[in-house]
Amino acid sequence: MGEQGMPEIRPIGTVGVIGCGRMGQPIAGHLLDAGRDVVVLDPHAAAVEPLVAKGARSAATPAEVAAQADVILVIVVDDDQTRSVVSGEDGLLSTARPGSIIVICPSLNPRTCQELAAEAEKVGVRVVDAPMVGGHRGAKDGNLTLMCGGPQDAIAALAPVLSAFATNVCHLGPVGAGRVGKTTNNMMLWACLRIDVEALRLARAYGVEPGTMRPAMIVGSGGNVPLQKWGSHRLTWPAKDLEVAVAMAQEVGLELRLTELLGPLMAELSVEDLSDLS
Asked: Would you list the DSSP string of 170-196?
């Protein structure tokens, strides 16, 4: 038996990928490139066709994926979709074999992850929550960072699979901790980006152009990743990310004064504003 009386983890042969969109398709592609046997599922046929052409097999339901796979990556949009995939009718838990691992990649409420993990445990299946940091570019380049929560034996067993598309796998604690890691990372990302904009605007107002100022800022004590990757941020998710952070803080009675101010400040910015400071 494995940790906490769970069945031993299955030898990892087939990997399932549910959700083959902007993140899931390149991730599945990296797994195929690494020589993995991959079974894929997406409601849109066009999303799986390139993967099938590379050697993946397609499935019609999550249950069909789980019947074949030892590890299943769930790369859908939100809590409701994840619940449907994992525990709904024809969901993964209806056919998942004891000792298999479900990896939840979207950024969910930690309690959702914990509830699904408890359901999975009843049938001998481990759940790891592994929100992704690095966006579409990170998925495409295969250098994502994963903020993981879950049992230690599962994280260790997943290493050969995750290494196909992630360069950093951070184990932060039990199931749900991954979501906490992703949220805190995003808080820092948007705070840095906003202060970078204000600093570059101030520099320009005093006659120092952003293109000249940025290299000096990067090597200074205020250097940060958004400065290094200037121009790569699409500003797609700051509102959602910061709303989640504030909501999580409210649940535990914590005041995040800067984060509460940051939402409206980020809403004022556009990709054009960043380009103007290139």
From this structure: EEEESTTHHHHHHHHHHHHHHHHHHHH
